[in-house]
Amino acid sequence: MTVAVGIDKIGFDTPGLVLDLVSLAKQRGDEPDKYTIGIGQDQQAVVPNYEDVVTMGVNAAQSILTDADRQDLDMLIFATESGVDNSKSAAVFAQQLLDLPVNIRTIELKQACYAGTYGLMQARDYVTLHPDRKVLVIAADIARYGLATPGEVTQGAGAVAMLVAANPRLAVIHDDSVFMSQDTPDFWRPIDRSQALVDGHLSTDVYKAMFAKLWQRYQDQTGLDLNQIDGWAFHLPYTKMAKKALDQVIDQADDRHQDLLKQRLAASQAYSRRVGNTYTASVYMSLLSLLANDDSLQAGDRLGIFSYGSGAEAELFSLSLVPGFEDQGPKTAVNRILDRRQLVSVPEYERIFSSQLLDSTVNSRSAASPRSLRAQFWGWQDGQRLYQVPKDEL
Ligand code: CAA
């Protein structure tokens, strides 16, 4: 008999600074309703120069890992499209900062916003073969389009860490994936650039088309219909995107089920409205948001997951919540992280945006605080990227 494998624990992190998008709209000469209703974003994470994907990923993982988990780990998979080195993987930096054993595999994965899902599937397959072992999957990204660009309103940053194990306490991942890849010039970032190039309207169209195709293929393959999917977590480049995708098929469900799916879609969008796009982490932040913000979910509910990465690649699969799942979603911890953030003005955000330490040839020090309890990027020294581990481990 095949053992049930899935997400045992899930953790989250985002920087401690936040920008109000009504203020940004006014500064840019746009209607605030375009941002908050038309696009569906209220706030976005602002990334100080002591945060990067490694620090956010480590802080997310730190919140869920126990010493026993560390001993059971065989692999750390780090998915990101905003990596800090063209050669060394973010997973190796994270391994050291998380104090993980030496005898593990560490690897970084890239395919735009999709790579976290590939990592999750690799983890699921590995644990299915080795049910007494665990895999840590970290998805972390910084969405950076540039000041006063059309994509600016959809920026954001964050990380999700998932511990994959046999007999998971949160959700079992079903072996029902459908996927597709198709070379498309909708969004990319050449190796010499720190900001993405994007054809935003094309990317929206490709996302919608891939969801419609994969949903049809999923139904053909599994025999399930929309009434049998109890909620969705979508990749959320901006929250309206999920509505555009689901609207294509929502009338396949009964009226009452349509209402339930809409209610749960709003729950899945709540964190994204406050954080912005987190690329690889986004679809799993959406899952976390659904778990935290909809009290009607029950054990046994089957949730559809739609993962999209520009370029382009997409995967649709489902997972089922297990008894006791309510105790595993870190609702209080996530709300505390979001509520404690410091609001910055538009000029402060613009200054912070331009203060990133992107030049490895100059020895430099970030604005990291020696007293912080978070992992932080400390600065460059002789071309090496230095990190500070939390104070109690110094
Ligand atoms: N009140 C209410 N709504 C308003 C409004 C107002 N005053 N003014 C405009 N709107 C509505 C528009 O009608 C439009 O709604 P619909 O999309 O439903 O038609 C919406 O606000 C956006 O308006 P525009 O299309 O004119 O906005 P834009 O041209 O500035 O671009 C964007 C919006 C394409 C999302 C842009 O922000 C962008 O390029 N973002 C980055 C790319 C992206 O997020 N792509 C998504 C798919 S790609 C992906 O998923 C991978 C990834 O993470 C990048």
N-to-C terminal Cα separation, in Å? 46 Å
Work out the number of β strands. 18
Radius of gyration: 20 Å
Task: Note the total helix count.
Answer: 12
Oligomer: single chain
Task: Please outline the major beta sheet.
Answer: 10 strands, mixed
Strand residue percentage: 15-25%
The kinds of small molecule bound in this structure are: acetoacetyl-coenzyme A
Shape: globular
Q: Strand pairing plus helix content: what structural class?
A: alpha+beta
Helix content: 25-40%
The string of secondary-structure elements, in order, is EEHHEHHEHEHEEEEEEHEHHHEEHEHEEE
| Average pLDDT over all residues | 96
Low-confidence stretches: none
Structure description:
The protein is of the alpha+beta class. 35% of the residues lie in helices and 25% in strands. The chain has twelve helices and 18 strands. It has helices at residues 21-28, 32-39, 53-62, 67-72, 90-97, 115-129, 200-222, 239-247, 255-275, 282-293, 331-339, 346-353, and strands at 5-13, 17-20, 43-46, 73-79, 105-109, 134-143, 156-166, 171-173, 178-181, 187-188, 197-198, 231-234, 302-309, 313-321, 342-344, 364-365, 376-381, 384-388. The strands form four sheets. Strands 1, 4, 5, 6, 7, 8, 9, 12, 13 and 14 form a ten-stranded mixed beta sheet that branches. A three-stranded mixed beta sheet has the order 3-2-15. α1 crosses α2 (32-39), α3 (53-62) packs across α5 and α9 (255-275) crosses α10 (282-293). It is globular and about 60 Å long. The protein starts with a strand and ends in a 6-residue tail after the last strand.
